[in-house]
Amino acid sequence: MPDVEPITPRIRQSVVRIPSGESRLHGVWYASLSPEGEEERLYGVAVAFFPLGEERKGCVRVVHELAMEMAAEGWGVLSFDYAGTGESPGGFEQVTWPSLLADADAGLRFAMGMFDQHGRRKSDNNPTVFLGIRLGARIAIEAAMGSRHEIDGYCFWEPVFAGKEWLEELRRRSKFRGTGGSGQGQGEATVSDIDGYPFSAELCRNLEGLNPANVSIGNTPCKLIQISHRNLPSDGMQAVTEQLNCAEEIECLRMQPFWLESDLADYRAIINPTNSWFTSLV
Amino acid sequence: MADAPGELHKRIAEIVVERLFLAVAPEEIAPDESLTLKYGVDSVRLFDMVVGMEDDFEITFEDEELTLENFDSLARIAAKVAAKQAGND
Lengths: 282, 89
Hints:
The structure holds two protein chains of two kinds. Chain A has two domains: about 10-160 and about 220-275, Alpha/Beta hydrolase fold, catalytic domain (Rossmann fold); about 165-210, no CATH class. In chain A, about 35% of the residues lie in helices and about 25% in strands. Chain A is built from seven helices and ten strands. In chain A, helix 1 (about 55-75) crosses helix 7. The termini of chain A are far apart. By secondary structure, chain B is an all-alpha fold. Chain B has a single domain (about 5-85), classed as ACP-like (Non-ribosomal Peptide Synthetase Peptidyl Carrier Protein, Chain A), CATH 1.10.1200. Chain B has helices spanning about 5-20, 35-40, 45-55, 75-85. In chain B, helix 1 (about 5-20) packs across helix 3 (about 45-55) and helix 1 (about 5-20) crosses helix 4 (about 75-85). The longest helix of chain B has 16 residues, at about 5-20. Chain B is globular, with a radius of gyration of 12 Å. The relative contact order of chain B is 0.19. The model of chain B has no long low-confidence stretch (mean pLDDT about 90). At the A-B interface, helix 4 of A face helix 3 of B.
């Protein structure tokens, strides 16, 4: 057998358990390795924030592919599941907005700890960046607002800031698809089946109370990626660019909403601009 | 303002092709062809298209109208949109 050259850089994917309150969240940490198998120096840290419910499923593969690419570029990347979602312990009926934010903060602290622990920095500028997908964008921003860590850049994929409208869309979709109940007309029920997920009454109240006008990232650099049938920003996305002061940094990708797809054929269209944007911050 | 029937069908066909990313010309879709059976469109994507159509035509479908059967062909979509535009539905 001839010697096989290792693929360089090699990527280590480590399944990690992230302490968050009484729970230990499931996460995956991506970092590149030297040919000797040691973890390479890192440029910075990226944390991915998933959306909820069915939308999360369609994002897992795309985030994995992006994380592999970013790790190859020298980033440490964390993707993780909030308690009650994905592979983290707990049931979805236990998810509340405060629990999501607590888990998001735990994810950020864990990622910073990994970076500090390895402590071998590749440059003087070691940015911490957030990727937020759909409702994950709002979670990312609120996690940043509540953290002592400064966030150096955001990239949001088709962000959702208005919880009430998102929940209403989910209810209507649920009705249309016949997946679970619509979550309406269930009186004082503590849990509503919406699009196949048991939303607690508290989470519904939390989401309905999310005012999009309260979202702010100050002067932090931000890139927005619109994913739709359009080549130009929608009115809603245009308003978001103004709200986040990133009118110069919007990209409109004409592609199917990947969070609704079980299998997206072409990840490159979204991975490349995201990776390039984050790397431009180093 | 309500569209003329021919124009409405044409517009809807264009929207369907565009929003569902179908690899077919709008005029090639027969009015009664099932979008789910003929083009493999699943219910999630079809719903996404229906919501988009509300924006395009500035109409709102009632929750009880939101069934897959009501939107599974150009003819059915056109009937729902036309009724909304006429204020009959």
